[in-house]
C-alpha cells in the first residue's frame, strides 16, 4: 500500500486536533448509549406490545428479543424519480431480515423534496432547511428505541446529508445506506442544455423544451448528470456506508435487489447482538470525512457538499473548515469527466470503471485512508471490487484495474487536471467557493464591473432587455440562508452560458447556492458573510470592479472605499410567506453561516 500523501496526513491531523474536545465528548455519549444494551429490552410490556402489535409473523421473534430488529427510515415518495424505487424496499428488507432470523420495521418516513422541481420557485427557499428537518424527523422515527441497527433509504440533495446527521445522533447503532440507483440514460445532458439555452434565447418554443426535458428525465432512478444527488451516492461509498459498487446500479434490476437484501442483512450483522459490532460513530471518523472530501475533489462533485459535509461532520463532533477542502483540492487530481464537466453521464462513468477503479487508483497514490472502518469490515480496500450476480448469488469480484474509457475516467496519475474540482476564494468580499472542474482555464480569471441584483428574476429581465453587452460580473445578493433559506440559482445557468457564448467575460457572485449541475460559467457562491448579515456584498454598487481568480483563490474588490459604505437592506417581506415559508421563520433566525454548514443546530451537536 502506498504511503499517505503528506497533505492528506497534514489535513487529517489538523482536523483531529481541532475536533478533539467535541469529538471526545460525542464518542463518550455514544459509548454510554451502547453500554445500555439493546434498547427495546428496557421498554415496559405495554410499550413493547404497542411496538409489536401489527407485526404479524414477526411478533414472536420481537418478543423473544434473541434477534436483531432493523429500523427502516425511508424518504420514499413517487414524485422524486430517484426515490420512487423505495416503494418496494420495505418488503425486500423485511424478507431479507427474516432470512437471517431477524426482523425489520419501517420506523418512519422523512420528507424529500426535489430541487429540480422547485428551481426558480418559492419552494426552493425551503430546500436547504429541509436537510435539518429531515435530520429531526429521522431522529423522531428512531426515538422509540426499539432497534438494533438502521437502514436509511435516501438519495437526493438534502436527504442523504440529513439522514447522516440523524445517523450520528444515534451513532451507537450500525447504519447502512441503501441507494436506489440512476435512471437509464436518456437524452444526452449536453443536448438538453443546448435546448435550454435555445429556449432562453427565444429560438425554440416551450413544446420543444418540454420534449427535451421529458426525454432526459424519463424513468425511475436518480437524474444521470453529476449533481448533488449522485455526489451524495459517491460520498456514501467513499465513506464506507454503502456496499462496494452499490451506488450506480440501476433500479428494479436483479442486482439492485440483491444489493438491497445484502445491505439489510449486513446492517443486522453489525449490531451489538453479534460479534462484529460496528456502530456508525466509528465508521464516520475524521479519516472517513477526509476520504469523502477527496472523493468530492476527484469527481468534481457538487458545491452543495461543501456546506453539507461541514454540517454532517459537526453532528459527529468533527470540525471541518473550508481550508481543509482547499488544501486537499490542491493535491487531488480531477479523475472524471461527467456532465456538467464532460459529456458522459453517471451510467457511462460506472461502465468505464466507476468508483471502484477511482478508489483503487487513489489508494495506490496515497490519497485515501485505507485503514477506516466500513460496513464491510474490510476497510476501504474492499471498495475496489464490483458486485456481480452469479447463478443468483451475490458476489464481489476484482474491479477494473484500468479505465475502460479514458475520455471519462482516468487514473490519479494521469488526471484531467492536477488539482480537484473546487476552489476556495477569499478576499475583501469575504469567503466563497467555486466549482472549477467545468470551467475552462481561460474563464477562471475575470476582472469586470458588477451589476447588482436582489433576485434571479431581475437578472433574467435585464438579459431579455439586452442590458448585458460588455464584460460583467453579475452579483445576486440577499440569497443567503439567513435571508431566504439560500435557494439555488440554477435558473441563471442558461442566461450566463449564452452571454459567455457571445464572447463576453461573465461571472456570478452570490451569497446563494448554485446547483450541483452548475455549468461552465465561473460562479463564486456561498459568499460569507451574507448580505443579510451586513456582509461586504451588501455594500456593492453597479459599476464597482471585482477581480475573481480561481487559480490564486482570490476574490478582490478593485474599487476603493467599498468597505466604508453602509450596507444596503433589502425587503424580505415577499419571502416570508407562501408555500409554508412562514413556518420556517425560526430556521431563518437560527441558521448559521454557509462556511459553518448553514445549520440551525449550532453548537447543540
From TrEMBL:
<feature type="domain" description="Dihydroxy-acid/6-phosphogluconate dehydratase C-terminal">
    <location>
        <begin position="408"/>
        <end position="598"/>
    </location>
</feature>
<keyword id="KW-0479">Metal-binding</keyword>
<keyword id="KW-0411">Iron-sulfur</keyword>
<keyword id="KW-0408">Iron</keyword>
<dbReference type="GO" id="GO:0051539">
    <property type="term" value="F:4 iron, 4 sulfur cluster binding"/>
</dbReference>
<dbReference type="InterPro" id="IPR037237">
    <property type="entry name" value="IlvD/EDD_N"/>
</dbReference>
<dbReference type="Pfam" id="PF24877">
    <property type="entry name" value="ILV_EDD_C"/>
</dbReference>
<dbReference type="GO" id="GO:0005829">
    <property type="term" value="C:cytosol"/>
</dbReference>
<dbReference type="GO" id="GO:0019521">
    <property type="term" value="P:D-gluconate metabolic process"/>
</dbReference>
<dbReference type="InterPro" id="IPR000581">
    <property type="entry name" value="ILV_EDD_N"/>
</dbReference>
<dbReference type="InterPro" id="IPR004786">
    <property type="entry name" value="6-phosphgluc_deHydtase"/>
</dbReference>
<keyword id="KW-0311">Gluconate utilization</keyword>
<feature type="binding site">
    <location>
        <position position="223"/>
    </location>
    <ligand>
        <name>[4Fe-4S] cluster</name>
    </ligand>
</feature>
<keyword id="KW-0119">Carbohydrate metabolism</keyword>
<dbReference type="GO" id="GO:0046872">
    <property type="term" value="F:metal ion binding"/>
</dbReference>
<dbReference type="InterPro" id="IPR056740">
    <property type="entry name" value="ILV_EDD_C"/>
</dbReference>
<dbReference type="InterPro" id="IPR020558">
    <property type="entry name" value="DiOHA_6PGluconate_deHydtase_CS"/>
</dbReference>
<protein>
    <recommendedName>
        <fullName>Phosphogluconate dehydratase</fullName>
        <ecNumber>4.2.1.12</ecNumber>
    </recommendedName>
</protein>
<comment type="pathway">
    <text>Carbohydrate metabolism; Entner-Doudoroff pathway.</text>
</comment>
<dbReference type="GO" id="GO:0009255">
    <property type="term" value="P:Entner-Doudoroff pathway through 6-phosphogluconate"/>
</dbReference>
<comment type="similarity">
    <text>Belongs to the IlvD/Edd family.</text>
</comment>
<dbReference type="InterPro" id="IPR042096">
    <property type="entry name" value="Dihydro-acid_dehy_C"/>
</dbReference>
<dbReference type="Pfam" id="PF00920">
    <property type="entry name" value="ILVD_EDD_N"/>
</dbReference>
<keyword id="KW-0004">4Fe-4S</keyword>
<feature type="binding site">
    <location>
        <position position="156"/>
    </location>
    <ligand>
        <name>[4Fe-4S] cluster</name>
    </ligand>
</feature>
<comment type="function">
    <text>Catalyzes the dehydration of 6-phospho-D-gluconate to 2-dehydro-3-deoxy-6-phospho-D-gluconate.</text>
</comment>
<keyword id="KW-0456">Lyase</keyword>
<feature type="domain" description="Dihydroxy-acid/6-phosphogluconate dehydratase N-terminal">
    <location>
        <begin position="70"/>
        <end position="380"/>
    </location>
</feature>
<dbReference type="GO" id="GO:0004456">
    <property type="term" value="F:phosphogluconate dehydratase activity"/>
</dbReference>
Amino acid at each position: 500500500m502506498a504511503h499517505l500523501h503528506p497533505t492528506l496526513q497534514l489535513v487529517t491531523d489538523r482536523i483531529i486536533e481541532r475536533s478533539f474536545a467535541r469529538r471526545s465528548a460525542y464518542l463518550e455519549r455514544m459509548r454510554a448509549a451502547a453500554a445500555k444494551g439493546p434498547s427495546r429490552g428496557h421498554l415496559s410490556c405495554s410499550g413493547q406490545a404497542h411496538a409489536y402489535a401489527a407485526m404479524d409473523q414477526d411478533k414472536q421473534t420481537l418478543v423473544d428479543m434473541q434477534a436483531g430488529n432493523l429500523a427502516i427510515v425511508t424518504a420514499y415518495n413517487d414524485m422524486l424519480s430517484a426515490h420512487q424505487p423505495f416503494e418496494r424496499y420495505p418488503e425486500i428488507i423485511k424478507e431479507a431480515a427474516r432470512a437471517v432470523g431477524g426482523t425489520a420495521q419501517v420506523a418512519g418516513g422523512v420528507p424529500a423534496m426535489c430541487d429540480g422541481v422547485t428551481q426558480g420557485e418559492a419552494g426552493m427557499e425551503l430546500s436547504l432547511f429541509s436537510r435539518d428537518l429531515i435530520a429531526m424527523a429521522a431522529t423522531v422515527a428512531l426515538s422509540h428505541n426499539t432497534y438494533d441497527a438502521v437502514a436509511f433509504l435516501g438519495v437526493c440533495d438534502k436527504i442523504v446529508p440529513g439522514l447522516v446527521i440523524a445517523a450520528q445522533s444515534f451513532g451507537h447503532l450500525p447504519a447502512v445506506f441503501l441507494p436506489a440507483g440512476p435512471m437509464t440514460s436518456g437524452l444526452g445532458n449536453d443536448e438538453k442544455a443546448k435546448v435550454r439555452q435555445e429556449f432562453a434565447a427565444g429560438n425554440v418554443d416551450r413544446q420543444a423544451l418540454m420534449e427535451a426535458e421529458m426525454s432526459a428525465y424519463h424513468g425511475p432512478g436518480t437524474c444521470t448528470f453529476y449533481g448533488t444527488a449522485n455526489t451524495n451516492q459517491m460520498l456514501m461509498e467513499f465513506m464506507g456506508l454503502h456496499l462496494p459498487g452499490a451506488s450506480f446500479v440501476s433500479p428494479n434490476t436483479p442486482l439492485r435487489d440483491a444489493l438491497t437484501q445484502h445491505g439489510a442483512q449486513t446492517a443486522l450483522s453489525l449490531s451489538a447482538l453479534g460479534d462484529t459490532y460496528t456502530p456508525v460513530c466509528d465508521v464516520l471518523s475524521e479519516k472517513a470525512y477526509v476520504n469523502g472530501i477527496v472523493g468530492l475533489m476527484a469527481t468534481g462533485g457538487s458545491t452543495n457538499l461543501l456546506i453539507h459535509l461541514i454540517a454532517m461532520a459537526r453532528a459527529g463532533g468533527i470540525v471541518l473548515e473550508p481550508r481543509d477542502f482547499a488544501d486537499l483540492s490542491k493535491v487531488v487530481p480531477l479523475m472524471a469527466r461527467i456532465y456538467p464537466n464532460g459529456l458522459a453521464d453517471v451510467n457511462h462513468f460506472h461502465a468505464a470503471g466507476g468508483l471502484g477503479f477511482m478508489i483503487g487508483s487513489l489508494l495506490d497514490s496515497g490519497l485515501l485512508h485505507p485503514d477506516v472502518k466500513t460496513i464491510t469490515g474490510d476497510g476501504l480496500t474492499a471498495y475496489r471490487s464490483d458486485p456481480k450476480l452469479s447463478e443468483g448469488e451475490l458476489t464481489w469480484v476484482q474491479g477494473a484495474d484500468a479505465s475502460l474509457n479514458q475520455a471519462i475516467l482516468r487514473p490519479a496519475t494521469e488526471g484531467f487536471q492536477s488539482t480537484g474540482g473546487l476552489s476556495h476564494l477569499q478576499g475583501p468580499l469575504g469567503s466563497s467557493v467555486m466549482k472549477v472542474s467545468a470551467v475552462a482555464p481561460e474563464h477562471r480569471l475575470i476582472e469586470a464591473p458588477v451589476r447588482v441584483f436582489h433576485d434571479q428574476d431581475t437578472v433574467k429581465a435585464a438579459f431579455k432587455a439586452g442590458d448585458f453587452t460588455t464584460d460583467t460580473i453579475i452579483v445576486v445578493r440577499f440569497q443567503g440562508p439567513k435571508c431566504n433559506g439560500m435557494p439555488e440559482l440554477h435558473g441563471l445557468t442558461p442566461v450566463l452560458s449564452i452571454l459567455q457564448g457571445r464572447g463576453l467575460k461573465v461571472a456570478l457572485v452570490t451569497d446563494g447556492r448554485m446547483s450541483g449541475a452548475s455549468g461552465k460559467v465561473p460562479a463564486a457562491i456561498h459568499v460569507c458573510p451574507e448580505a443579510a448579515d451586513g456582509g461586504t456584498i451588501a455594500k456593492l454598487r453597479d459599476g464597482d470592479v471585482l477581480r475573481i481568480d480561481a487559480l490564486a483563490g482570490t476574490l478582490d474588490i478593485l474599487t476603493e472605499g467599498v468597505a466604508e459604505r453602509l450596507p444596503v437592506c433589502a425587503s424580505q417581506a415577499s419571502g416570508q410567506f407562501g408555500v409554508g415559508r412562514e413556518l420556517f421563520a425560526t430556521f431563518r433566525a437560527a441558521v448559521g453561516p454557509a462556511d459553518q454548514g448553514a445549520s440551525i443546530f449550532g453548537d447543540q451537536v
